[in-house]
Write a structure and sequence with these properties.
Length: about 220
C-alpha cells in the first residue's frame, strides 16, 4: 500500500471515529429513553461550562444529527489528511475554543446543542488555510468547502433565527475560531511547492562569476 492510500485510509478511519461519537450518544438516548439535551451548553452559567464538551455530541433528534454528519465527516477527513501529526491538536483547539466562545456569546436562558459550531470552525479553518498556505491540494479543498458551505454565511444573521432554536452564536463562534487557528497553524501541514522561477534564477547565477581573482582583490 502506497503512502497516499495509507493516509487516506487513516483519515477516513479518524473521521468515522469522530462522527460516530454523537451517533453513539444519540443511540444511548434512544435506548434509555432519557433526554440528554439538558446537558448542553448554557451560556454564562457555571453549570453550562460542561456543555463546552457535551454540546457537539448532543442533538435535537435524528434530523438534526443527520444534517451535521456529512459535513463533519468531510471536514474532519480533510483535517487528518492535510495536517497529520497536528490534526488532533488542531481538532481539540477548534472543539474547545468554539465551545468557550459560544458560552460567552450565547443568549441567556438558552441551551445550545449540536456539532454545527465545530463544523463551522472546521470549514473556516480549511478555507483560510487553503488561501494563505497556497498548497494546491489544500487550495482545491478550500474551494470545495466554499462551494458546498458558502451558504453558511446566512447563519450569522440573528434576525433570521429570531424565533427558532438555531444557535447562530455557535455558528459565528465556530467560524471565528476556525479563522484564528488557521493563522496560528499556518506553518503546519504539507509545505507549499517550491517556486520554479526562483529555482531557475538561483541556478542561473554563478556566485563565482562575481568573485575577483585573488591578485586583483588584494590590490584594492
Amino acid at each position: 500500500m502506497d503512502a497516499d492510500k495509507k493516509e487516506a485510509y487513516l483519515s477516513t478511519f479518524c473521521a468515522l471515529l469522530i462522527v460516530s461519537l454523537p451517533w453513539i450518544v444519540y443511540l444511548i438516548e434512544i435506548i434509555s429513553s432519557v433526554g440528554l439535551t439538558k446537558f448542553g451548553l448554557y451560556p454564562l452559567e457555571w453549570k453550562g461550562l460542561t456543555g463546552i464538551i457535551t454540546m457537539p455530541l448532543l442533538h435535537e433528534g435524528a434530523n438534526h444529527l443527520m444534517s451535521n454528519t456529512p459535513s463533519l465527516f468531510l471536514l474532519v477527513f480533510g483535517l487528518f489528511l492535510f495536517f497529520r501529526r497536528k490534526s488532533w491538536q488542531i481538532l481539540l483547539c477548534l472543539y474547545l475554543t468554539s465551545g468557550m466562545m459560544t458560552w460567552f456569546m450565547g443568549r441567556a436562558n438558552s441551551v445550545h446543542v449540536g456539532a454545527s459550531g465545530l463544523v463551522y470552525a472546521l470549514a473556516g479553518f480549511h478555507f483560510i488555510s487553503g488561501v494563505i498556505r497556497k498548497v494546491p491540494r489544500q487550495m482545491a479543498f478550500a474551494l470545495l468547502v466554499a462551494f458546498l458551505y458558502g451558504g453558511f454565511i446566512w447563519a450569522f444573521f440573528p434576525s433570521l433565527y429570531k424565533y427558532t432554536s438555531v444557535s447562530w452564536e455557535g455558528h459565528l463562534s465556530g467560524l471565528l475560531t476556525g479563522i484564528a487557528f488557521a493563522f496560528y497553524f499556518r506553518h503546519s501541514g504539507p509545505p507549499p511547492p517550491a517556486d520554479p522561477f526562483q529555482t531557475e534564477e538561483e541556478e542561473a547565477i554563478d556566485d563565482t562569476y562575481w568573485e575577483l581573482p585573488k591578485e586583483e582583490a588584494d590590490l584594492g
